[in-house]
Amino acid sequence: MSGEPMLVVVEDDDVFAKVLINNLAGAGFSATHFDRPETAIAGVPALPRADLLILDWRLPAMTGVDLLDRLRKLGCKAPALLLTSHDDVFYEEAALEAGAVDFISKTRSFSVLRKRIELVLAGNRRDGAVPAATLKRGSLLIEPAIHQAKWNDSPVSLTLGEFRVTERLARAHGDVSYRQLYDVLKGESFIAGSGSEGYRANVRTLVKRIRQKFCDVDGQFSSIISVPGFGYRWREGAPDGQA
Questions:
Q1: Are 191 and 206 in contact (CB under 8 A)?
Q2: Could you give the CA distance from residue 29 to residue 215 in angstroms, rounded to a whole number?
Q3: Superfamily (CATH) of domain 6-122
Q4: How far apart are the C-alpha atoms of 98 and 94, rounded to whole Å?
Q5: What's the pLDDT tens digit per position in 43-52?
Q6: Choosing a second label site near 11 at 20 to 30 A (CA), which of 64, 158, 197, 230?
C-alpha cells in the first residue's frame, strides 16, 4: 500500500468520532469522517480511494449494514468493519453476512481496533503484491479478496481472525501448530495467557468457535482435526476431534 492507508469513518456521535479520528491519526491512519449515511453515500464514491470503511451500526435513518449495501451497489469494494454497542452474536452474524469483514464492540480498547484494522489492511495491500488465490478444497471455498469462507456454497459467518485461521489450516497440507495459528492472529512471538504456552488455550477456544460455525451450516462438518499436544490439521472426511 503506497502512502498512508485511507480510512472512511461513518459515525454520528460527534464525541466518539472525534476521539476515534484522533486515535487513528496518532496511529498513522488518514481518515475521512461522515456524520450521516446520506453524506457518506454521496461522498465515498467521490473519494480518490478508500482502503477501509469503519461504519457505526446505529445511524440516523439506516443501519451500518444498510449503508454498506448501498455503498456496494455504488461500486465501493473497500472492506468494512462494523462498530456497535450491541455485543451480541445476532448482530455479529448479521454484519458478517452483509459482507463486513469484522464486527467490533465500541467497548473494546483502541489497541484492539487498531490490530483489527492492521489485519484487514494487510489482507488488502495495494503495493503490487499478488493476492492469495481462491482456494477450493472439497466442500470448502476460501475467497481471500473478500475474506469469505463457504461450505457447500453456503457462507460461513467467520470473523476476520477466524477466517485467517481457517485459511491457514486449509492451505496447509499437514499439521499446523498452536503457535503457527496464534501467529496468524497476533504476529510472531506474541505472548498471551499464563506461562510460556498460554496462547494454546486461546487457540483451542478459537478453533472450537470455528468448528461450531461450520457445524451451524452443516451438522456433519468434521474437517478440523486435533493433533494432540501439537495443534490441528484440515482434512476432508476425517472424524472430528475435540479442541
A1: no
A2: 38
A3: Response regulator (3.40.50.2300)
A4: 6
A5: 999 998 899 9
A6: 158
